[in-house]
């Protein structure tokens, strides 16, 4: 089934953005300046993970890695960036000269995009001279936080929609233009069919969808004039918005135009409902379409949909083939951020951690091992040290960047989407409830990691809390 | 009081972005193609407004206009955009040729940034040939929705913080990089002192703040070594993060370093708390600082702050001079979108509207008039027709763009911030409760607008709903 203006062009070039070196918190640079003053150029490892589950979530979809790698490869301080930093009077000329030559030369181990992960699990680890690994913190969190959050939200919508097609309609209310682009990409990974976002279509080669708004209808003398005009311009792609004045009356006019199209050898592709009691209206509209011999016309619905509203209308027997899913998915309205952190876990080969009664801090570079049941379902994950060996556990993090160069092939978006779909099927339903609270997927620590963690805590307490 | 790495450089150039013509929903372009096919080049007016209040809000702060105007001035379809559109096989060559020469040639009437507005009130109206006014819809909503939402959220934080300084710390979890930039700008309008976002500092000339993270502390052999190193590199800007291992122990080490600094003629600027029971800890830390003769050192707090948590710790007597306010403000977590719409209100001089039982639709170009009490407080607003005259009412919308050229001088961010501050004081407290639900500010329709609306509804119902 195809709806709206759909097509699959080849992927365009990725977006080039200037000034990304300054997409950072000032403290990354003040810390860097101080490391520089103290000749601290030894290797550090930082670990990216989500601390806790937001309400109703018990899994996350990995997304955003491609953006991170592109950023790391391109990262440069331009002359205007250096001029600006100099104008702050915070930094010494020697440090600014260092930044002028700055390149990211480190390694990245990461979970592939599209795979599922769980709270506390490292999904990306950066190992590099500490200044390099520190400066990239802000961008890395920003990129992965947004896309993982949206891919997760989108996968929830797809879960309840079943075989019905979902289209990202969120651009107008995403939090900025960059978010609009990333939401289109991440929701596609989560299982959406495409987006209304034209730039995302161009940038990522995503299918784009769209026909008309209410303004189009009301700019014509009468609704049926608008329908006829659209059918004339887009005879292959006519989905008529029928609720500008009243849905049933609008549908009857759409039927009239559909019959006119049929006489010319074309076909009314469908109608769109955007307001009112969509479940009830869709049944009424389906009946009208069927009785008029337009049983092939699809019913497209939009208007404040998210996983909950999609589930509700489907349970009420709505006759909807496809949904436009907008704002609530595009900002992940019920969970508009993840509690994602990027923590130093080793410096100069030594394990480090922050002491915190409430937050689990795991020292040294790590690996996540995934164990499956005999039925090939996900059984549990074990977080271990990077060089742990776990019987029958699949190591999830792979090296994707070495010495600042991308060494893994970046999969096409369609492949990433397929990975997500496949992983989702391997996760038991009890971990993916839509309403209410699902169960927690079991995540354990390897014995070596557990012992190391305790030893480091003891050592830190001895050094830092023993009086004076 | 100054904290952290603060400075006020001159504003840099605004960001140049490519491809903004494609930052649009596909349907804007399919509608445009159909208008084009039907020789529909008459003038249309579209009206931008927020339909409803999100939870706990009863006013909004206008922000985002500068972005909109810059976009309209720069709007072009580049060759690569046209190539992409051609590749979709949706558009005819004549229409693509039209887009090649496309310039925005219309007028914009708008509420100045920083002023307060209310639900249903038009805050920006675009009058232009319909294709032009239609194509810009998506970007305009996106830009104003984000910044108005954040400026509003920020003003709520400022309301409870009183004279305490607030700094935007949200960049790592804003929804993308563009949002990070716009959040820094909008939160400054709402009353924040500055941001941690270096690119925002460069772009908008905002004060930037930041010193160190936990990773900095734990990369040194001992906490006190990290403190000493930082004080050595930034003797004018030493705010020490004291909670990496344990806040009281950390504070005592900070005091030690503060005394060492004093011997060299420097001063410990302050300490930062980022975890634990911040209200209680801050009192304990204040006592330690005072008893050590460091009564000038400020206490900076961060960690999941929003208006509610700021209010709570202040009510509990927290000794905090300044807050870093991050994620929850940066994504407006409790209200991550506004119900903002851009509706066609006239075409070819005729009033139009969408019929909807639940949504108020107001035909023709409009004006908003603000009436003050004798005490210069805001009494009520009246939405009227553009050419209404309301006794003693200040017309709020002013013409800022004529024939595609910006005709108003764009105020500096400091001025916009002052406007917001001033308006906020004129709004009675009963409309700005933080917890619970505040009262609704009175917004009326002018008699002429009310009569017109009824007449247009009657006419539309006659034309569209009278059966056929």
Q: What tags apply to this protein structure?
A:
homodimer; seven-stranded antiparallel sheet; elongated; six-stranded parallel sheet; disordered N terminus; alpha/beta; 468 residues; 16 helices; nicotinate phosphoribosyltransferase
Helix and strand layout, with pairings?
2 copies of one chain form a homodimer.
Chain A: H1 26-37, E1 43-50, E2 60-61, H2 65-74, H3 79-87, H4 93-100, E3 107-110, E4 116-117, E5 124-129, H5 130-135, H6 137-161, E6 165-168, H7 177-189, E7 194-195, H8 198-204, H9 214-218, H10 223-233, E8 239-241, H11 247-263, E9 270-273, H12 278-291, E10 298-302, H13 307-315, E11 322-325, H14 327-330, E12 340-347, E13 350-351, E14 366-372, E15 378-385, E16 394-395, E17 398-402, E18 405-406, H15 413-426, E19 443-445, H16 447-464
Parallel strand pairs in A: 6-7, 6-11, 8-9, 9-10, 10-11, 15-19
Antiparallel strand pairs in A: 1-5, 1-12, 2-4, 3-5, 3-17, 12-13, 14-15, 14-16, 17-18
CATH architecture of the domain at 20-138 and 338-464 in chain A: Alpha-Beta Barrel
**Percentage of β-strand residues of chain A:** 15-25%
Oligomerization state? homodimer
Instruction: Report the span from N to C terminus of chain A.
Output: 73 Å
Task: Provide the helix percentage of chain A.
Answer: 25-40%
Question: What is the number of beta strands of chain A?
Answer: 19
Structural Rg of chain A: 26 Å
Which stretches of chain A are low in confidence, meaning pLDDT under 50 for 5 or more residues running? 1-16
Shape of chain A: elongated
Question: What is the average per-residue confidence, as pLDDT of chain A, rounded to a whole number?
Answer: 94
Please report the first level of CATH classification, the CATH class of the domain at 20-138 and 338-464 in chain A: Alpha Beta
Strand order of the largest sheet of chain A: 13-12-1-5-3-17-18
Structural class of chain A: alpha/beta
Largest sheet of chain A: 7 strands, antiparallel
| CATH topology (fold) name of the domain at 20-138 and 338-464 in chain A | nicotinate phosphoribosyltransferase
Largest interface: A-B, 115 and 114 residues
| Count of DSSP-assigned helices of chain A | 16
- Give the name of the CATH superfamily of the domain at 20-138 and 338-464 in chain A: nicotinate phosphoribosyltransferase
């Amino acid at each position: 089934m195809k709806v709206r203006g759909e097509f699959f062009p080849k992927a365009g070039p990725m977006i080039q953005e200037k000034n990304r070196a300054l997409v950072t918190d000032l403290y990354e640079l003040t810390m860097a300046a101080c490391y520089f003053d103290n000749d601290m150029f030894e290797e550090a490892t930082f670990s990216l993970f989500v601390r806790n589950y937001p309400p109703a979530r018990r899994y996350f979809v990995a997304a955003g890695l491609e953006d991170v790698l592109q950023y790391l490869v391109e990262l440069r301080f331009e002359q205007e960036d250096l001029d600006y930093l100099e104008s702050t009077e915070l930094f010494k000329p020697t440090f600014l000269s260092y930044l002028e030559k700055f390149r990211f030369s480190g390694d990245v181990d990461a979970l592939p995009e599209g795979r599922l992960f769980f709270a506390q699990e490292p999904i990306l680890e950066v190992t590099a001279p500490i200044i390099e690994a520190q400066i990239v913190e802000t961008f890395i969190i920003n990129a992965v936080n947004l896309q993982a959050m949206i891919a997760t939200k989108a996968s929830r919508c797809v879960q309840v929609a079943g075989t019905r097609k979902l289209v990202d309609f969120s651009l107008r209310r995403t939090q900025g233009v960059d978010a609009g682009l990333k939401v289109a990409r991440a929701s596609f990974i989560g299982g959406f069919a495409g987006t209304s976002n034209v730039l995302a279509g161009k940038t990522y080669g995503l299918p784009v969808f769209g026909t008309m708004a209410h303004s189009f209808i009301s700019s014509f003398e009468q609704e049926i004039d608008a329908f006829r005009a659209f059918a004339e311009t887009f005879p292959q792609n006519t989905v008529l918005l029928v609720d500008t004045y009243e849905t049933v009356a609008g549908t009857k006019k759409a039927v009239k135009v559909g019959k006119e199209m049929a006489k010319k050898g074309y076909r009314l592709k469908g109608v769109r409902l955007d307001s009112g009691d969509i479940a009830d209206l869709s049944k009424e509209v389906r009946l009208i379409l069927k009785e008029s011999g337009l049983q092939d016309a699809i019913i497209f619905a939009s208007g404040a949909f998210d996983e909950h509203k999609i589930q509700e209308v489907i349970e009420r027997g709505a006759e909807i083939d496809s949904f436009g899913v907008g704002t609530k998915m595009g900002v992940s309205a019920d969970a508009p951020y993840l509690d994602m952190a990027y923590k130093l876990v080793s410096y100069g080969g030594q394990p480090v951690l922050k002491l915190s009664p409430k937050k689990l801090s795991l020292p040294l570079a790590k690996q996540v091992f995934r164990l499956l049941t005999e039925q090939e379902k996900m059984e549990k994950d074990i977080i271990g040290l990077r060089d742990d060996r776990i019987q029958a556990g699949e190591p999830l993090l792979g090296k994707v960047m070495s010495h600042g160069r991308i060494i893994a092939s970046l999969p096409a978006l369609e492949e990433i989407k397929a990975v997500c779909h496949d992983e989702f099927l391997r996760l038991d339903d009890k971990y993916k409830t839509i309403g209410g609270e699902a169960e927690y997927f079991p995540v354990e620590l390897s014995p070596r990691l557990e012992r190391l963690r305790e030893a480091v805590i003891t050592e830190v307490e001895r050094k830092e809390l023993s009086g004076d």
